[in-house]
Amino acid sequence: MFYFVWNNWVNGQGVYRNVNGIPTLINGINMHRFIRYLTITISLVIFSSYALGINLQKNEGIISGGKYSIQSLVLDEVREIFISLPESYKYSSHHYPVIYVMDGEFLFDLTRSMVEIRAARNYMPESIIVGIPNNTGKRIEMALELFDDKGNPFFYGDGLGQTGKYLKFFRNDLIPTIEEEFRVNSHRTIIGMSPSFGPVLQAFWSEPDLFTGYIVLAAEIGKKLKSGKSIGERLIEEISDEKRSTASIYIGTAGRDIIKRGPKEAALYVDIPKKLKNIANPKIRYKFEVIHEEDHYGMSIPGIQHGLETIYAREIWNIDYRKMWNSQDPAQALSDRYQQLSEHYGFEIIPLEKSFNSIHNIIKTAEILYRQNRIEKLIPWLQLAVEYYPYSPRIYSQLSKAYTQAGKHALAIIYAEKAVKLAQNSEDIRFYKSLLKTLTP
Prior knowledge:
Number of domains: 3
Radius of gyration: 30 Å
Mean pLDDT: 89
Order of helices and strands: HEEEHEEEHEHEHEHEHHEHHHHHHHH
Helix content: 40-55%
Shape: elongated
């Protein structure tokens, strides 16, 4: 940086040099003064850097989930598992959908962040994320045995083609363990990429009761299975099967992969949706997509997003909180809207207690009703919120304030005490104690 500044000054207009070629005047500034200015500047930079180093202290780490291990009888090995619970998990008694993510060491954090953001914007329900990393180095076992038009193998490696074994691992080991340890419902999604999309597709056409949502990344739909049929042909058969129950499947590939595969593979992403248009089972949502300007694994970012959009469609997740709080009965409007969503998906979906910098949630709507002095609407709203989140000190404190405003002092104290009790060992305990103190001087 200093070399650049020096040249700007020395070679600029108004620079004079003495007989030895050393600049003595720079744009009217004495050389000694310039050197002194430069020395002070460098000293300040060094001092600031030193101070920053002293002030930067490491506290506890950022927590994105927990790391567990499971002894699999099916795989005959210990598998590492990553699990992330929604923040609301500890405040509710709700049972959540689960998203199982293959290649967990690569896709778990990405999926968790995407789900958190999308749920916070009311695009999908909060979910439990379960990542399955390749800690035993056997990723190739999940690959389907695939062949090109000439009969040449597509995937190579010892032990490939054991997708059935991994589905058995899900059915017998992993899913029962997750269901035993956590509050989950029956809606399960699975994500796989390249070799690890094997169990995703195998489950879709062989064990459709295992999952409801399927996200296939870095897909290969033109390659042939051992049966002689292509992946694309099998997908057409399954998506058009009228006997199948509700499901959603996303098939995505990278534009740079399509360039390598050729026009025949590219055409499938146009032709298959055309074939399915009039024969698809209406209970199955599907999307085939080429993500342009992305490579094999780089497409996972938009691919997961578009996969989640396929499972949880934006036109269905149209939740208008403004309409609710302006209605004659906000609590009933909230209950009705989430009952509709729950009936559509076949599992209970509850509204967000709170979300990042958004008004479209229970707490912010409560604050708006409070500011509008619509206490007769606010109290039923918060009573409903308690049903969704019976362990939330935030909601009980809001109820306390509402009852204070309504002149019901005894109830205000009861709910403030409940907030304090639930907030024990939390960072916000002082706030709730302060609220209670104002009610019990």
